[in-house]
Design goal:
With 175 residues, the chain is α+β, with helices and mostly antiparallel strands. It is elongated, with a radius of gyration of 25 Å. The chain is built from 4 helices and 7 strands. 37% of the residues lie in helices and 28% in strands. It has one domain: SH3 type barrels (Roll).
């Protein structure tokens, strides 16, 4: 059973990586070439913050850290060595929380892409819930960096564009 789950997880991971790659390429095609080096910074404006399950809205991106017993209880469904999950918050029930898992967090620190139906996680298996929020400081640094890069680029263009000479290339070839 575990090998079947591992094969299913690795196949799902490949499909998710392909979709993410195609989305990244489509996004990059819409950007001006001068902004392409900044594309990896797009995720730098968010951070995870602790949140009570009662206040997390449906659809929010979350990270749920599991207790050691919780990881063991979910091993048959998610695989061994899972310490947490990241994904979309579906909701909560009296005795569990539901997450549409996009990524498994493992004990060795490896993140594994995962897809499937929402996973019900017993409240006793949950060590913590964190919600993705906008980091004001990271956003300010990113905006400031982009603005500084733009000013520097304009200064280079205005100062370096002063080539002089005649339109024809200047005189005879000198043979």
């Amino acid at each position: 059973m575990s090998r079947e789950v591992d094969r299913a997880v690795s196949g799902a991971a490949r499909r998710v990586r392909r979709r993410a790659g195609r989305l990244l390429l489509r996004t990059a095609a819409l950007l001006p070439p001068s902004l392409l080096p900044l594309l990896p910074l797009a995720g730098a404006c968010s951070t995870y913050r602790a949140a009570a399950p009662e206040v997390v809205p449906a659809g929010a991106r979350v990270r749920v850290t599991l207790t050691p017993d919780g990881g063991a209880a979910l091993a048959s469904r998610l695989g061994g060595a899972v310490t947490g999950v990241e994904g979309e918050w579906v909701g909560e029930r009296r005795d569990s929380v539901d997450v549409r898992v996009a990524r498994l967090l493992t004990a060795p620190g490896v993140r594994v892409d995962w897809s499937g139906p929402p996973v019900a996680i017993s409240r006793g298996a949950v060590q913590s819930v964190e919600r993705v929020t906008v980091s004001r400081s990271r956003t300010a640094l990113l905006v400031g960096g982009v603005a500084a890069a733009g000013v520097a680029l304009l200064a280079i263009v205005h100062r370096g564009g002063g080539a002089s000479g005649t339109p024809g290339g200047g005189g005879s070839p000198g043979f």
